[in-house]
C-alpha cells in the first residue's frame, strides 16, 4: 500500500523526468548501484543472522547442538572449552562486521560520487542549453529563476530524488532481508511486529505525504521569491538608497525566508521524527515479547536469544524504516523541483538551440549594402507587430541614425539585424545574401554597443576581448580598439594598465568610461558594421558629445547604425530614419551631407 505510488502514472512521469538527468553512460552504472545495494543488504542480513548463534551460546552452551554446521567447524578446528568457542564466534563476528562496513563505505563512496558528479555535469549542461537557447527564451525568463534551477534545484533533484531513491531501494532490500530471516526464525512474533510497524508506518506516511508534496511546491515559490528580492535589492542598490527602499527589500526577504525556514524545519523533522516514534515502539515491542515469553514459562535460555535476535534486528530495522519513510517523503518533496527543472530545460530546447559557426571563411564574407526588405516581426503572444513592412537600405560605410519614440520598434529592428531574432516575414540581406544563410559569419562582422554595457568581473583586457581565452588575446589589438574608443590614455595611466580589474558591475568606472569599454569591445573584432542602441542615452551631455565624437571618427571606415533619443547624437549621420509604431515613417538625408 505504501508503494502504490511507484506504479501510478505520476510515478512513471517522475521516473521519466528523472531519467533525463542522467546521460546513457551513467544510466548503465545504475545496475552496479543496484548490485551494490543487494550486496550490502545481504551483508546486513547475514550480520543479524550471525548474532543469533553467538548470543544463544552465551545464554546456553548446549544450544550449539541446534547449529549443525557450526558444531562441525568447531570439531574440525579441535576447539574445546567455552572460552575457545566464544573467541572463535566473536572473532568471526568482528571480522565480518569490519568487512561489511568496508563494503558499505566503498559503495557509499561510489554512490555519492555518482550523485555529485552527475549533478555537476547536469547543471553545466543545463547552463549550456540556457546560453545557447534562442534569444526569445531569455526575453521570457527571469535570470534569477534560471540561477535557482542551476544552483539549488538541480542538486536538490540529485540528493532528494536520485539519492533518496537509491537509499529507499537499499533500505527496502535490507528490511526485506532481515524480515525474511526473522520470519524463518520466529514467524509469529515477526508477523505480529510487521503488521504493527507496517500499519503505523502507513498511518504516519499518509497525511505527511500530502503535506510533503505541497511543501515541495511552496519551497520552489519561496526560493524563487527570495532570489528575486535578493537580486532586485542588490542590483538596484542606487534606487534602493535614493527611494529609501532598503527596508522594503529587507521585509520581503524576511517574509520569504521565514516561509522557507518553516519548510526546511518540516523537512528535517520528517527525516528524524519517525525514528523517535519507532524507537519507542521497538522498546515497547521487545518488552511485550519478554512478557509473553516469561508468561509462557520460557527459561532464560529461550528468552535471551529471542530477545537478542529481535534486539539486533531492531537495531538495524529502526533506522531502515525511518529512512524508508523519510525517503518516500523526500521524493514527494523533490517532485516539484524535478518538474520545474525539466520544464525549464524543455523550454530552452523548444526555443531552439542556436549554434553559429564562426570559422573565418573569407569567401562567405558579408560585405556591401544592407538591404532590409518588407521586414516584419511580432513577439510571441503579442497582439501587434513590433515591426511592420520595413524597407530600407544602408550603403557600405554609410552612417545612419534611427530615431522614434520609445516602443516604436528601434531595438527590435537592431535585434533582427544582429540575428538575435528571426523575422516573422521579410528578410535582411547584406551584399545580396540573406543573413540567415550564415548567421555566425554575419555576426562576426558586427560590433554592438548597448545602452548598458555588461562588464564582467575581470580585467580591462578580458572585458575588451570579451569571451576570448586569456592565452590568445592580442594586446596589440586591444590597444588599437581602446585608441579608437579614445580610452587608451586612461588605461595607460592606470597602475596596472590592461590588468586593472574593473570591479563588480564596474562601479569603479564612470558611465562614459563604461561605454568606451563597450565601444572598444565592439571594435576588437574589427567588424564591418557597428551598431549602437541608445549607447549614449544614459550619459550627461558633455560625455555624450565626447563619445559621439569618438563614433564620428569611425565614420566612413565602418558601416554605422545609431539608434538614439537625442537628435544631437545623430546630427552627423548621412541619413536618418524615423520610426513610429513599428513603421518607418520618414527618411531624411542630413543637410550637411547633401
Ligand atoms: N520581449 C517582448 N515581448 C513582447 N513585446 C515586446 C518585447 N520587447 C518589446 N516589445 C514590444 O515591441 C515594441 C517595440 O519595442 P522596442 O523595439 O523595444 O522599441 P524601442 O526600442 O523603439 O523603444 C513595443 O511595443 C514593445 O512593447
Ligand atoms: Mg529600445
State the CATH architecture of the largest domain: Up-down Bundle
The percent range for strand residues is 5-15%
The count of domains is 2
Report the total helices. Answer: 17
* Total beta-strand segments: 10
- Structural class by secondary-structure content: alpha/beta
Report the CATH C-level class of the largest domain.
Mainly Alpha
Q: Biggest sheet, in brief?
A: 6 strands, mixed
CATH topology of the largest domain: ABC transporter transmembrane region fold
The parts where pLDDT drops under 50 for at least 5 residues are 1-5
GO molecular function, one term: ATP binding
Membrane topology: Multi-pass membrane protein
Subcellular location: Cell membrane
Protein name: ABC transporter ATP-binding protein
Task: Give a brief outline of the structure.
With 594 residues, this protein is α/β, with parallel strands linked by helices. Residues 1-5 have low confidence and may be disordered. Helix content is 63%, strand content 9%.
Structure characterization notes:
This protein has 594 residues and is α/β, with parallel strands linked by helices. It folds into two domains: 9-34 and 118-169 and 186-350, Up-down Bundle (ABC transporter transmembrane region fold), CATH 1.20.1560; 362-593, P-loop containing nucleotide triphosphate hydrolases (Rossmann fold), CATH 3.40.50.300. 63% of the residues lie in helices and 9% in strands. It contains 17 helices and ten strands. The strands form two sheets. It has a six-stranded mixed sheet with strand order 6-7-8-3-9-10. A hairpin with a 2-residue loop joins β9 (575-580) and β10. It is elongated. The termini are far apart. The model is unreliable at 1-5 (pLDDT under 50). It binds adenosine-5'-diphosphate (ADP) and magnesium ion. Residues 139, 379, 382, 386, 404, 406-412 line the site of adenosine-5'-diphosphate. Magnesium ion binds next to α11.
